[in-house]
Amino acid sequence: MALLSGMSVDWYTWLEQARPIQVSAQVLESLSRALQLDANERKHLYLLALRQMPADTLHRESAVSDRLQKFLDQQGDQPAVVYDPRLNIVGWNKPACKVYGDYAQMTERERNSVWRIFMDPYFRVLLREGWEGKARLRLAQFRANYGQFTGDSWWTEFIAELSETSEEFAEWWQQHDVLDSPEGSKLLYHPVAGTLSFDHISFHPTDAPDLSITVHLPLEDTAARMRLLVG
């Protein structure tokens, strides 16, 4: 194994013995190739050794399959979106666009839900007095995901950029709140449809566990308002 991985026998022995040595991503890649690990096994190795995911995992696994898109489109008038670990919106249906804006016309940065809630004035209109609570919740979820990718340049650059452009983000980021709370309710004040009230539920598809699907479930008269808005 040492020969196949391009390292000394002593180093490989220390690795197997779990001695306090520093293991680089390059070493882990060599081991992954030598052991012929599949994608899930490779991620597990990184989490064991570095406590973070491989840097390229997100780009390879954030695509929404045709099957998943079909599921989104079959949600009727219920808004549904797909998030990647960076909380980018990578999949959506028509009702989601009617409520939150046309994702297809947005840049990748604008489709990041953390960026939008802090930087897009539309979200302050949409959430009104509930904006701060939702913004803090989204930021805490973002930090929880960040723990899997510490040191990844995308996260470092994104956090620095948003800290410079949003005083609230800069202040709240230093509070180190961590939360993973996918279920809950949401009250929105849509400029066309009026007040919209939802429960929402989130889950991970088994064939793409790094993605998260959120479906909004209309409450009270919101279902009728959504039918008009989508129609």
From the spread of the alpha carbons, the general shape counts as elongated
Q: What's the total count of β strands?
A: 5
**Poorly predicted residue ranges:** none
What kind of oligomer do you see? single chain
- Portion in helices: 40-55%
Mean pLDDT: 89
Which strand order spans the largest sheet, edge to edge or round the barrel?
2-1-5-4-3
Alpha-carbon distance between the two ends: 62 Å
Secondary-structure element order, N to C: HHHHHHEEHHHHHHEEEH
Rg result: 21 Å
Biggest sheet record: 5 strands, antiparallel
The tally of domains stands at: 2
Structural category is: alpha+beta
Total helical elements? 13
Note down, in words, how this protein is organized.
With 231 residues, this protein is α+β, with helices and mostly antiparallel strands. The protein folds into two domains: 2-51, no CATH class; 60-230, Beta-Lactamase (2-Layer Sandwich). It contains 13 helices and five strands. The protein has helices at 2-5, 9-16, 25-35, 39-50, 57-61, 66-73, 94-100, 113-119, 121-127, 131-146, 153-165, 167-173, 222-230, and strands at 80-83, 89-92, 184-190, 194-203, 212-218. Helix 3 packs antiparallel against helix 4, helix 8 packs across helix 9 and helix 11 (153-165) crosses helix 12 (167-173). The longest helix has 16 residues, at 131-146. The termini are far apart.
